[in-house]
Amino acid sequence: KSRPALANNYADSPLKLLGSSNALNTYPSLISGFMGKASSASNNIFYCNKVKDITMNHKQVTLFNMFILNVFKILHLFEKHVLRNLRDYTEGGFRLKECLRYSPLFCERGYKPPISICKSLKRKLSTSRTNDKLDPNWVTGFVDAEGCFSVIIEISEDFKWKVRISFEINLHEKDKYILYKLQSFFGVGAVYHRPDRKKSVYRVTNVTYIKNVIIPHFTNYPLVSKKAIDFLLWSKVVEIIFNKDHLTKEGFFRILSYYVSINKGVSKKVLGFYPNILPADKPVINLPEHLNPHWVSGFVAGDGGFSIYVRSAKDYALGEKVDSRFHIAQHSKDLELMHLFIQFFSCGKVTVRSNTSTPRCDFDVQDTYFLLTKVISHFDKYPLLNLKQKDFLCFKEAILLMKDKQHLTIEGLNKIKSLNLEMNSNRLR
């Protein structure tokens, strides 16, 4: 049968690579080579633009099938032995799997790759874009809690100013899974790791992606906290840079005025050169009448907490008592937002704390009845999705034990203590 020819570098180089003892070490470059040169294909990603018709005999087809099987073996071994770093190649791995799945050699000949390998690839490489897709309101809530819209102004050695922008979310390295979910949701940006600090960050710095993807999302699904002010001012900076106006003196000074009003304000270095910068007027943000339940779960996934306390108590038969608490902590500038949580959950109270280094306010619920009927019932329906979901499940189990008075028995008390050791900072050790 007449088939389009594979590009020479597909036919020769990979086959030689498969016979090499360093095949696994070269996996990322193999993926890169496949993806970079095959992405321009219109009908099938395995073929390149510069194709020509040749006749493939049965032997050639068989050899190519063997090559495909070897690729699967490499992926399987790589997944097994280098799983920790596998997600660094998530996008390439996912695309390669799709290439193999829709290759004419598979479709026309009815060939199916090994089931175990396909399931494994789907589980580890797929970014779950269908059944497990993030709700856009959840994303906005999570960014309200954990996101950052940054403007970075630097001076080079030749005293030229550089302006950079970024949208990013920094988390503990054990919570990096949700960063990959966010990367998949937006379809832009990258996830970076800082093993020395046990941190992972999802970051978008490309101005075009920010203007066409990030800003439209938060325009359609607005931020609720005071972080919305930073976003609106940051968006104006993005517009200036996108239009190349930051290269003019007037545009640069406009950026400086917004820069002063965003996040923590101007840096000392910039202030040393421009001490008389006038800050831009901050826009007024109006709170919604009601909070979206998905937004609430996203926000709590970032800034909420579930706590169990076991304290000494002489009045109790076991000499210890158990207290529980669901809470959300914020800067006091978001005090009005904290009161909206009382309305949303129909319970709880807000406390303002002025004795801390940063003025803060807390919303918390401690009553077991309300924790069961209002708080737990909400998060059962609208899950947290990140690592804090594990805290919630331990918290829920402890509350159910308390509801049945099991915390008054030595077995129940010990169970609650063990659950507490799996929560919050204990989980991150």
TrEMBL record:
It holds the Pfam family LAGLIDADG_1. Keywords: Endonuclease, Hydrolase, Mitochondrion, Nuclease. Coiled coil: none annotated. GO terms for molecular function: endonuclease activity. This is LAGLIDADG endonuclease. GO terms for cellular component: mitochondrion. Residues 140-238, 297-398 form the Homing endonuclease LAGLIDADG domain.
